[in-house]
Amino acid sequence: MGINPVTGVAGREEKGENTLHHNLVRFTHILRHLGMRVSMAETLDAYRALTLVDLKSREKVKAALRAVLVKKAPDRQIFDLAFERFFVPPEDKEQQYLLRRQQEEKERQRLAKAREKLEQVLSPWSMEIKFNQEDIQTFVRMPLQEQKRLTDFIRRMRGNPVNSPGELIARVMQSALNYWRYYLLKTQGEEARRQLEAELTGETELDDVISGVAADFYRDPDDQLLYQDMQHIGLAEVEKYTLTLERLSRHLANRLSRRYRQSSRRQKLDMRRTIRRNIAYGGSPLKLCYRSRRRHKLRLILICDVSASMARYARFILQFIYGLSNAVQYIESFVFSEDMERITPHFRKNEDFVTVMTDLVNASQQWGKTTDFNTALKTFHVQWGNLLTADTLVIIVSDTKTITPREAARELAALREKVRDILWLNPVPARQWSNLPGVEVFLPHVRMFECYSLHQLESILHQQLLK
């Protein structure tokens, strides 16, 4: 036995992978890749907590780790699913390993048969096309009827002694595979957006846990709403989604309305953070934390795209911002498509949001039209330029799809010079931004975030508004 100099607890002098601290580090690594925030200090706290409970009791170990590592309600189920999948008996891990090897072998055989099938189709022309791994995987994932359709089409092509169709066949084959690669990426990408956001580690055992949690997590209806694309919320789910949105908005509003914030200046002692920071020293207050009064409440300007491609997202985002009105001293709200409209007076009627939105949509001249961000920003500068101050945060909600994006970028640059910061919430997945001309020209002037789900919206605003 030895005393750990960092945690101050006794631990066995054992090394290797099958140790408490090694498995705990791997578990927290999984949680981070599933989107949970787990710091090194919290990992040390978790290790110390485990030394205080009976390690033979699975429920006590789970409760101790949950108490230290889980900070938000949505993270509770992520933690539970990850715990059940990671901490399993050795025989179950061995069984999972064998199953994984069988699946890998089965996939290898499928790819080998697909390569052989393609080469057989091309053999009458004595030509070789070097298919890469991605081409073979695309062919395997194509529907069986489409595979047959492609191979039958190639077989029907016959050369002649004057002009061999070999080059043409190669182009046809490659074009067909490229089309299906794009189609499958698009359709499966939409399906992936309905699952828990998770990043893989590259380590097979950990990735199995992460993938399993991401799949299981989405089966819970409440969590499905949090992570689902706003555009795919069905009519039957709108009421429940609205209640969830209001709850998250109220929670953030309460955080924004707090009178104190963290501070490095020696003013009022922050007992909670002081105790937390000194756990590693056995509770002795060697390092003190302070807090100070907030200087002023935030000034916020919302500019929301309500064109045809954005109207669905705009409705939910406007409602979220509407719920923050009591916590933020100054909120000005605008919508745009072909031009800019100020909608702040609608939000000051003290009516329920459904009534407000109904009146707003009926009175608006912009809802559901095409997008001209350049004209909209010019109108904003002329009519409401006096609203821009050095302590104003501007939030723009748009998919960047607009005519004359370069002219709009110049107007955006002028706007950026007058405000504290510009946050751009983009409902298009980040992996598709390279296909949007507007993203490239707008990025130098804003901080852009992927934002198509309620979870992303709440996380972004929570992090940015509480700075």
From TrEMBL:
- InterPro entries, per database record: UCP010256, Uncharacterised_CoxE, vWFA_dom_sf
Any Pfam family from its record, for instance, is VWA_CoxE
Q: Which PANTHER family match?
A: BLL5662 PROTEIN, BLL5662 PROTEIN-RELATED
Q: What is this protein called?
A: VWA domain containing CoxE-like protein
**Organism expressing this protein natively:** Desulfofundulus australicus DSM 11792
